[in-house]
Task: inverse folding
């Protein structure tokens, strides 16, 4: 029996409008990946966008099934690396020579799961997810690779802290107006009951940091970047905690007051000399306002 030849209108028909297209492909493809770096190895689920350019005006459509099959080489059989992405991009272009393709790009989004220990309680730990986005693009032989990570942290408002301290000061002076030289025990007892007369507002906050990745390195350096961001901010959110850890975190926040502008400047200073084409966006999800406070910084 003769094999039935199936029609392929993407090659047998000509595009009705002779127009080149910047990018064509697929997005939100589910794909398992393996991340390995700095002693960290974990299989994760990613969403992948895969696209090529279509400069040939007369070609009706690209070969999307070829792109899909190539992504299987990025799956969790081997660890994801800059070199693996570069090879895949070259293959994406090579499989579309008949479309005159000379550019390809891959975008991967996933969450890096990292085990974080409590501040004080020995052995107490939990998992924290860090959203990651990788953008790899090969255009006319030139490769660019950028990584964006998001770190969640706590920010306490310096203005709110100053206002709270002023209220506490006034209340203290009123309480001891007739006792110019109060005993330590009396002051301690008063503070125990009234030190939270007013408390500064703090909120969950996000730092989105995007940098160039050295394509000659074996890994993306994601964990190192995350660690430097958390060190610069000083108050990353916690996972599992007991009361002692919660108290230690409260102390960290009290000694680490910051406006959104402070956070952006800290990251710019801490990362600017280590990473190329740094771009920072911070968001303080206000507990005082119904809107958010935001700031951007870059080394451009």
Result:
């Amino acid at each position: 029996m003769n094999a039935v030849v199936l029609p392929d209108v993407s090659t047998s028909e000509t595009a009705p409008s002779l127009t080149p297209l910047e990018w064509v492909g697929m997005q939100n493809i589910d794909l398992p990946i393996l991340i390995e770096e700095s002693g960290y190895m974990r299989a994760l689920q990613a969403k992948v966008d895969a696209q090529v350019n279509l400069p040939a005006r007369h070609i009706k459509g690209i070969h999307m099934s070829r792109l899909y099959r190539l992504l299987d080489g990025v799956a969790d059989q081997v660890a994801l690396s800059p070199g693996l992405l570069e090879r895949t991009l070259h293959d994406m272009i090579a499989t579309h020579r008949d479309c005159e393709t000379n550019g390809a790009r891959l975008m991967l989004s996933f969450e890096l799961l990292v085990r974080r220990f409590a501040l004080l309680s020995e052995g107490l730990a939990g998992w924290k997810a860090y959203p990651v986005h990788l953008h790899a693009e090969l255009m006319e032989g030139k490769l660019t690779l950028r990584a964006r990570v998001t770190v969640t942290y706590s920010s306490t408002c310096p203005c709110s802290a100053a206002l709270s301290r002023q209220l506490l000061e006034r209340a203290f002076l009123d309480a001891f107006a007739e006792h110019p030289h109060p005993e330590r025990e009396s002051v301690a007892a008063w503070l125990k009951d009234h030190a939270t007369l007013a408390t500064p507002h703090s909120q969950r906050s996000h730092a989105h940091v995007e940098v160039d990745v050295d394509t000659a390195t074996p890994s993306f350096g994601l964990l190192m970047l995350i660690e430097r961001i958390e060190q610069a901010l000083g108050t990353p959110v916690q996972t599992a905690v007991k009361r002692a850890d919660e108290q230690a975190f409260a102390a960290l926040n009290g000694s680490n007051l910051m406006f959104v502008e402070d956070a952006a400047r800290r990251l710019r200073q801490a990362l600017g000399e280590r990473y190329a084409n740094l771009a920072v966006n911070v968001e303080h999800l206000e507990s005082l306002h119904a809107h958010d406070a935001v700031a951007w910084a870059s080394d451009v």
In short: Residues 110 and 240 are 23 Å apart (CA to CA). The chain is about 30% helix and 35% strand.
